[in-house]
Amino acid sequence: MSTDAPTPLARFRGFAREHSLGVAGLLSAVALGLVFAVVGGVVPATVLPRAPSAVLEAIPTLNAVVSLAAIVTISLGVRAARNRDFETHRRYMLASTGLFGAFLAMYLYRLTLLGTTDFGGPGVVERFVYLPLLAVHILLAIVCVPLVVYVLTLAATRPLADLFDTAHRRIGRVAAALWLVSFALGVAVYVLLYLVY
């Protein structure tokens, strides 16, 4: 008796290959839905274990470090792709995705437990510098999620030779550029919120 039936993972990978845009859209909607649920206060703080205050206070600084690391890994990943070193590109972009996941987990955890942090600087700086930087950072982060998920879905469901026949390169360039700007603006927001004021 032959056991050549595809595994559930192989079946899902085949489905995701045929429906990359839909799968990426669904995964993006779930991820963004979770983010909006936390930001909107739908997730109660009581569902999470509470870390010590020192850990909660360290999260913004840790996230700034994670953001700087992601800027480096995205830049190196883009350079590797330009040099046609696709294995190195893959490693750096997976590292960038992991860093983004760590950033988001820490940010959402702290936000659920403590809420937002008020800006302590002058109103004019808040209105004309801090809030515009924060708004663009948030907007780019939201836009990046479906773009990044889509290029990751394409890469995860195809061998390298087939990837060149997809939108991976075109969409990936846009995603990487927006991702870099979003992380850089996030660091600027951190500097204004926690170091300058």
TrEMBL record:
Keyword RNA-binding assigned: no
Domain of life: Archaea
Transmembrane segments: 21-47, 59-80, 92-109, 129-153, 174-196
Keywords noted in UniProt: Membrane, Transmembrane, Transmembrane helix
Organism: Halobaculum halobium
Protein name per Swiss-Prot or TrEMBL: DUF420 domain-containing protein
Pfam entry (one): DUF420
